[in-house]
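Please decode residue identities from the backbone states below.
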């Protein structure tokens, strides 16, 4: 056992009192049933080591973490044309905000807020005959796990209650920045958010971003080194919505969160760290998860800064 195992065991004990402090997402009814007591963490290194603690093997709804996969696919497919339809600046606003979109005439700030992700989904539909099947193939390849799938119940649950996303998609359409029908874009978007993966799956799936675009286990190139650098930069500046500054200050790594309570953080050249704790803070980021990642970079004295 190397030091990482000891460290994550210590962290799991330390964050336990925080598990009750966050609030499980209730606006997606299927997520509101998840116990806030769940906690998992996994570290996958580019050398092939894996360290886990708690519920690291249990699947959960990855929600907005899926935005990294769709972005990687679309950047690879259409390159810089993406930036004609979506920006790449921090939003400083909640992930589902409508206000900025009006000020900025229907061009979302970045691909990791919901409005920007809906643009990426629109492009996925234009570029792929079967976008969901292609996304699944991509994620399974990244994680090296053919069992990964969508959670139909979560997707349906969000479809029934996703009025804000419907508003965002309609708003984009009104500005001429959505090509496909609103219903179709939302259907694909809710399915991509419903991807069900464990901490271990996510740590493995993101390893290409810690290794210049190539999966260190299989040697398969997932994207070029330039794209990997750019995706990490976008995660650093936009991955935690209006808490990117806080996350950079406390954790110091590129990261991406989701309202299912997962956060993935990348230490380029070294490892991927994933944490899952369903209780969220007011910005929609895992409360204990942020603390766990902060403790990891504190105890290991490592970050990109
Ligand atoms: N599916 C969620 C939504 O669109 C994803 C948001 C998130 O994880 N931040 O509201």
């Amino acid at each position: 056992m190397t030091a990482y195992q000891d460290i994550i065991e210590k962290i799991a004990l330390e964050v336990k009192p925080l598990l009750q402090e966050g609030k499980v997402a209730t606006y997606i009814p299927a997520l509101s049933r998840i116990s806030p007591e769940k906690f998992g963490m996994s570290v996958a290194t580019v050398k092939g080591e894996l360290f886990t603690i708690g519920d690291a093997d249990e699947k959960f709804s990855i929600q907005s973490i899926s935005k990294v996969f769709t972005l990687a696919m679309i950047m690879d497919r259409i390159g810089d044309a993406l930036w004609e339809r979506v920006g790449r600046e921090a939003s400083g606003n909640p992930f589902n905000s409508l206000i900025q979109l009006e000020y900025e005439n229907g061009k979302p700030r970045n691909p990791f807020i919901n409005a920007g992700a809906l643009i990426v989904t629109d492009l996925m539909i234009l570029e792929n005959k079967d976008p969901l099947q292609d996304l699944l193939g991509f994620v399974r390849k990244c994680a090296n796990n053919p069992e990964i799938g969508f959670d139909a119940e979560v997707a349906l649950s969000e479809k029934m209650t996703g009025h804000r996303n419907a508003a965002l998609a309609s708003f984009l359409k009104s500005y001429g920045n959505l090509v496909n029908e609103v219903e179709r874009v939302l259907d694909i978007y809710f399915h991509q958010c419903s991807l069900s993966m464990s901490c271990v799956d996510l740590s493995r799936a993101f390893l290409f971003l810690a290794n210049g675009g190539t999966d260190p286990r299989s040697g398969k190139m997932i994207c070029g080194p330039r794209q990997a650098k750019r995706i990490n930069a976008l995660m650093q500046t936009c991955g935690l919505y209006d808490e990117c500054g806080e996350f950079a200050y406390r954790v110091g790594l590129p990261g991406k969160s989701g309202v299912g309570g997962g956060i993935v953080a990348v230490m380029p050249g070294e490892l991927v760290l994933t944490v899952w704790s369903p209780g969220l803070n007011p910005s929609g980021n895992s409360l204990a998860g942020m603390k766990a990642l902060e403790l990891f970079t504190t105890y290991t004295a490592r970050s990109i800064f």
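Observation: Residues 114-127 form the longest helix (14 residues).
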